[in-house]
Amino acid sequence: MALDAKIPGGPIAEKWDRHRFELKLVNPANKRKFDVIVVGTGLAGGSASATLAELGYNVKTFCIQDSPRRAHSIAAQGGINAAKNYPNDGDSIWRLFYDTVKGGDFRAREANVYRLAQVSNDIIDQCVAQGIPFARDYGGLLANRSFGGAQVSRTFYARGQTGQQLLLGAYSAMMRQVANGKVQMFPRREMLDVVLVGGHAKGIVVRNLITGEVERHAADAVVLCTGGYGNVFFLSTNAMASNVTAAFRAYKKGAFFANPCFTQIHPTCIPVHGSFQSKLTLMSESLRNDGRVWVPKNPGDKRPPSQIPESERDYYLERKYPSFGNLVPRDVASRNAKEQCDQGKGVGETGLAVYLDFEDAIKRDGKDVIEKKYGNLFQMYEKITADDPYQTPMMIYPAIHYTMGGLWVDYNLMSSVPGLFVLGEANFSDHGANRLGASALMQGLADGYFVLPYTIGGYLAGTAKVDVTTNHKAFDESEKAVTARIDKLLAVDGKRTVDDFHKTLGRIMWEYCGMARNNEGLEMARGMIQELRAEFWENVKVPGTKADFNQSLERAGRVADFLEFGELMIVDALSRQESCGGHFNERFQTEENEALRDDDNFCHVSAWEHKGDGQEPALHKEPLVFENVKLTQRSYK
């Protein structure tokens, strides 16, 4: 099957404007005749729900949390990119486009990335109008700071709470529409299936997490904004409720899953402290603006950092990458931290950490300046570790963070299932093999505020309207399948907890499909996952009943999906015999241990089609054509 990305013709700077003009429109009087389901209330889902309702559509919005404000977007810390060029340091839409394509190691679609850069400035205007309290400089203009992968300052921020503030803006806009009766809110619902009628997405089946009731909801289109799948690794920076289930249910109904092996390791996380942990804590990448990363030059040096003189410290990022220094992209910084620890230079009790040191910045700018920039982050670090980063360096180590893979979408953000749109981290489209910092918030809001409202109208206006109710047999079949799966989980009555299976899966994924991979390890991991999955369905213990609030049952369903999805990640990693971005196959690296792409054979999107349980997924390739940014070996030296 040929994947049609529906990329408009013409010069790249004109594609989006031309496409918006050529899209069919739904006139204002007719918008009220259409119902749209939005799953998820993070930045993508909240902004999409608010904007669609503002246009006149009837929106049903679902979230897994007790309040839309608890969506995981709230955890984003460091900032959001835009090409405003307020510091007058050489930024532009083209430079943001170039940096994002390069940062993604040339595995993203040019047209999508340019559009993202193009609408980035509108996002800032929108958020300022909403009252987002961005940091400002002395003259009152919005402040900017640097982030990894760029040599200009283009990141807008609200201290270390940018995600929270942006989410409150989208939430406020959405709740305005709830009050107007245009958005109907369904909290504490988990999507367990997408319903297809005539090959088009026409609704979803969800479980009410409080009562256990299985519900049906119909609509003219379905929009998934359900985030990433980093929790397949068990330990990640994601919220505990983050999962792959909604996307994986869509995959099983025919939506292609693209590049699942592209997962991002964030270099600036608080190291693992013990086996009791359920998640990891992210320290913002913005800290690398002023913090210097170093390790002792001598392996095994366990002296306190204050006793290690400057001459015996290795500021390895500054040494290896003089142009970018500590602000290299996340994949590069992460692999280098692992390399130093593998050489025995890691610090702390486990040896799996490096220092992030603010001593020079405090001496240069004063403690007050550093506190204004990062005070809440320093407080968070001290609360977790009992160390004061004003007095002693932070200890950091890479951890699973963002996922660049996701459901395949075309230029209109529609999946391979007509009528099923996918936004934000849940799709694959804009980041390639590695996400640059501060671009996730940008993509989520771009998709929700400025892209989907146009493209969904083109679909609705160009498709014959078929009114489908929840009495349709497709809903009967879907609810029957969902209920049968729930009953199967409860009937196993084994002896091993859901979390124990999840931890085991996470260790397999981290060890063999984490920061570094090799073919032998991936093959071994695939067999291990298959064995673990078989044991899960024979020995998992899920207490309680389905007609009740049952968190063990919730987690069991998500882990069951992770046990299948983890294998798909392995299959994807094995099929991509190159290294690029977050996918680092040890066989393919330069003499300087950087990722070595194979553009002749792998300059494509890998989109996987579900062929049935127990069957090998089918691979479909979307060729990536680079007409505006030259394919080169990525270098940050």
From TrEMBL:
The residues responsible for catalysis, as annotated, are: 330
Q: Give compartment(s).
A: Cell membrane
| Keywords from the named record | Cell membrane, Electron transport, FAD, Flavoprotein, Membrane, Oxidoreductase, Transport
* The reaction(s) this protein catalyses: a quinone + succinate = fumarate + a quinol
Which EC main class describes this enzyme?
Answer: oxidoreductase
EC number, UniProt record: 1.3.5.1
Entry cofactors: FAD
Give every Fumarate reductase/succinate dehydrogenase flavoprotein-like C-terminal domain span: 502-636
Task: Please report the name of this protein according to its UniProt entry.
Answer: succinate dehydrogenase
Its ancestry begins with: Bacteria, Pseudomonadati, Thermodesulfobacteriota, Desulfobacteria, Desulfobacterales
Q: Which gene encodes it?
A: sdhA
